[in-house]
Amino acid sequence: MKICALLMCLLGVIGLAQQTAPAQDTPLTAAEYQYFRSLLMAASGVDSNESLVAGKREAIAKHLGLDEGEQAILSNTASQFKIQMQSLVTQQKAISTGDGTLTPSSRAALSKIEEQRDEAVRTQAAALLRGFRPKTISQIRAYCASVAHIIAK
Fold first, then answer.
1. Is residue 110 situated within a structural domain?
2. Is the pTM of this model over 0.85?
């Protein structure tokens, strides 16, 4: 009887922990996608001078309260994202050269590049969510939910 009660108590605690722990493999909401896209663009330096990247990463780390391990994860993930984005930009430039008109095949190729960019954001966001502490994930998701709520009004 005591073993059964102990087992029930343990299962209850596990169930509660699963309910309160942020789901790291949960698909990104639209707000979370935009947040991670902006975060990755800033942390990778894709759209800015390389000398500003360290300062941006430091500001992100301070804003989110990242520990050293999370900062390393952010740095590695942002570096991978930058490589992916540079490749896509190169492909985009190769398609977009010329007189400015786009053929149907050029439009299709650009659409595919946009899909690849979106997938890169989702892949690297998932890498951050797998590496960040539950506290950090909860903070990010709460922020995104509050922004989405404000925008929806």
1. yes
2. no
d(CA 45, CA 8): 51
- Cα–Cα dist 135/35, whole Å: 17
**Residue 21 covered by a domain:** no
Type of residue at 119? E
Structure tokens at 71: 């900062």
Domain range for 84 = 35-45+52-152
> Each residue of 74-110: pLDDT tens digit?
999 999 999 999 999 999 988 886 777 788 998 999 9
Between the CA of residue 131 and those of 18, 26, 85, 136, what are the distances in Å? 18, 14, 21, 10
- Residue 44, classified by CB atoms within 10 Å of its CB into exposed (0-12), middle (13-18) or buried (19+), is buried
Looking at the structure of the chain, the number of domains it has is 1
